[in-house]
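Quick one, tokens below:
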């Protein structure tokens, strides 16, 4: 029996965090891929594992760990070798956790707004209002988000707000890299702060938002350094990008540019 089992979705940014840490540490694990738009995360057998009805979830033997930010820190505590992804200094470790909290509160919901409007909306636009509300009601953590989006998508105002939050995030990252002197957000060594924000930046690039850091070369160098790590390609295997899952999205982005 495999000790570690990861329930996740290929395109889920939160899942990508966890996959990266598992591969970075060279840990063996069994991957259970869930199709979120087929409702795999809402089936009774999965809700027994994670009653929040979201991915990822990590099963370690008889224990279940949920929430990607919690999972990646759990993995580093339980499997500190061959290298730790947190700092020994408590103050620096607190700064890392603060950045992860910022990531979860600002760019993560912002990129979700853009992702739903640009890629996922067709899943909902053809539904009847009753079916859409029933779907939203079935989601323990995403009900309010879906209802605020509706079947016609987020407003231009909401999209503008989300884009501004992502722009602010890139600036904060650039400032962190300058303060730490790089090449990573917290200094000389990669940490969970880098891992937490990594899928958001990859998603932004996939949505043709790379222009947000064209004037901030440190961001490009940071992303290139991540791509050179063996864990990166293992994490972003074929089908992990939205434009791979939704070819029509890629075509629309090409036409827009």
């Amino acid at each position: 029996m495999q000790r570690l089992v990861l329930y996740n979705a290929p395109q889920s940014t939160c899942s990508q965090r966890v996959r990266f840490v598992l591969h970075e540490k060279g840990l063996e694990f069994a991957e259970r891929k869930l199709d979120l738009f087929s409702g795999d995360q809402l089936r009774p057998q999965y809700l027994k594992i994670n009653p929040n009805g979201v991915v990822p979830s990590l099963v370690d033997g008889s224990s279940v760990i949920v929430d990607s930010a919690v999972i990646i820190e759990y993995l580093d505590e339980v499997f500190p070798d061959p290298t730790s992804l947190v700092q020994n200094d408590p103050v620096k470790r607190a700064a890392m956790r603060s950045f992860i909290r910022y990531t979860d509160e600002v760019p993560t919901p912002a990129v979700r707004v853009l992702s739903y409007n640009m890629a996922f909306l067709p899943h909902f636009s053809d539904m009847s209002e009753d079916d859409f509300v029933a779907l939203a009601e079935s989601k323990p953590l995403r009900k309010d988000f879906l209802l605020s989006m509706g079947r016609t998508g987020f407003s231009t105002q909401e999209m503008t707000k989300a884009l501004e939050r992502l722009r602010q995030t890139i600036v904060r990252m650039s400032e962190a890299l300058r303060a730490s002197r790089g090449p990573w957000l917290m200094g000389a060594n990669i940490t969970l702060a880098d891992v937490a924000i990594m899928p958001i930046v990859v998603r932004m690039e996939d949505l043709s938002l790379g222009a947000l850091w064209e004037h901030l070369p440190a961001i490009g160098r940071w992303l290139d350094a991540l791509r050179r790590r063996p864990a990166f390609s293992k994490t972003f295997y074929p089908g992990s990008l939205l434009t791979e899952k939704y070819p029509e999205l890629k075509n629309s982005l090409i036409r827009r540019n």
